[in-house]
Design goal:
With about 290 residues, this protein is α/β, with parallel strands linked by helices. The chain has 11 helices and 13 strands. The chain has a 6-stranded mixed sheet, sandwiched between helices. It has a 4-stranded parallel sheet with strand order 2-1-6-7, with helices on both faces. Strand 6 (about 85-90), helix 4 (about 95-105) and strand 7 form a beta-alpha-beta unit. The protein is globular and about 60 Å long.
Length: about 290
C-alpha cells in the first residue's frame, strides 16, 4: 500500500522548504477583486492586497481552487499514491472544502481521498498540515492520521480584533445597524474562530483594551506549544510591540513570530485586524506562573 499524500490550500501558513521536504501539495487560492482573478502567492502579494483594501476598501472573494483544479491535482497524485488527505481552510469561511469534496467523489473506488475541514486557517492550518505530513512520512495509516488530526483541530485557537467594522458587516458577521453604532462608539469587536466560524465574543472600547483581551486570552492556557501574532503588516507596529511585551511575561520561553494574514481572513475582517494563533499542543507541562 502506498504512503498517504497530504494536500492543502494556500490559506495555510507553512514554510516553503518544509512543504517541499514533507512533499505537501499546496493549491493556491484564487482571489477575485473587482471581477479580476488572481492566484494567491504568484499574482497576489498579501501586503499589497491589504494596503489596497485599506485605501480603496475593495472586497476580495475566494473563488478557487475549483473542482477542476482539485481533479487535476488528484489525478496527478494517483500516479504515485492511492491515499490522499486533503486538509483545507475552514469550510465556513470559503468554498475550498466543498470544491475538494466534489472532486473527491469522482475518485471513489480508484483512490481513497479524505477531505477534512480544519476549521481554521493561517498558522493553525499550517500546523495541522505539517503534523499530518510528518505522520504520513512515518507510514502511519490513513485512518490513524485522520483521527489524530481530528484531535489536534480542537487544540488550535484563533482570536482577533479589528479596527473597522465594514468588512464584518459585508461578511454578515454583524448587522448594518451594529456596524453604524459600533463605528460611532469606537467599539472594536473581539472575535474568535469557533468550529470554523468567526464569532463576535465581546466588545472593547479602545485599542489598549483590545490588546489586553488578546493577552488575557493567551494567559488562560496552562501550556502553549506554538503561538504567533497575526496582523496586517509584515513589520512590528506599536500595538504589536506592546502585545509581544505582554506575551513575554506570560510565556517567557516562547518566540512570537509576526505573520501577515492572507486574503481569506482579510475578506472577512478587513485590513485592520490583529490577532493570535495558539496551538495548545499535547504536552501536560504547565507554563510558569
Amino acid at each position: 500500500m502506498s504512503r498517504v499524500h497530504i494536500v492543502t490550500d494556500s490559506a495555510a501558513t507553512i514554510e516553503p522548504a518544509i512543504a517541499e521536504r514533507l512533499d505537501i501539495t499546496i493549491l493556491p487560492l484564487t482571489v477575485r477583486i473587482d471581477n479580476e482573478d488572481y492566484q494567491d502567492g504568484t499574482e497576489l502579494d498579501h501586503e499589497e492586497l491589504l494596503l489596497r483594501m485599506a485605501h480603496d476598501r475593495v472586497h476580495p472573494k475566494i473563488v478557487g481552487p475549483t473542482v477542476g483544479e482539485f481533479r487535476r491535482v488528484y489525478n496527478r497524485l494517483m500516479r504515485r499514491t492511492d491515499q490522499i488527505i486533503s486538509l483545507h481552510s475552514s469550510a465556513s469561511l470559503s468554498l475550498v472544502c466543498r470544491e475538494a469534496q466534489k472532486a473527491a467523489r469522482e475518485f471513489l473506488g480508484r483512490c481513497d481521498i479524505v477531505v477534512m475541514d480544519s476549521e481554521t486557517l493561517s498558522l493553525g492550518l499550517g500546523i495541522l498540515v505539517q503534523e499530518a505530513a510528518q505522520l504520513a512520512r512515518q507510514s502511519v495509516p490513513l485512518g490513524a492520521i485522520v483521527r489524530q488530526m481530528r484531535g489536534l483541530i480542537r487544540r488550535i485557537y484563533v482570536v482577533l480584533v479589528t479596527e473597522t467594522l465594514d468588512y464584518l458587516e459585508h461578511s454578515g458577521l454583524i448587522s448594518p445597524s451594529q456596524a453604524i453604532l459600533g463605528t460611532m462608539l469606537g467599539i472594536k469587536p473581539f472575535l474568535a474562530i469557533e468550529e470554523g466560524k468567526i464569532i463576535p465574543m465581546e466588545k472593547v472600547r479602545n485599542r489598549d483594551r483590545a490588546i489586553d483581551k488578546l493577552a488575557e486570552f493567551a494567559s488562560e492556557f496552562s501550556y502553549i506549544e506554538r503561538i504567533a501574532i497575526l496582523q496586517s503588516t509584515p513589520y512590528p507596529t506599536e500595538k504589536t510591540k506592546i502585545l509581544r511585551e505582554r506575551l513575554e511575561l506570560i510565556a517567557p520561553d516562547h518566540e512570537f513570530p509576526i505573520l501577515l494574514y492572507g486574503p481569506l481572513l482579510a475578506s472577512h475582517i478587513g485590513p485592520d485586524g490583529m490577532g493570535l494563533v495558539v496551538y495548545e499542543g499535547t504536552s501536560k507541562e504547565a507554563l510558569p506562573r
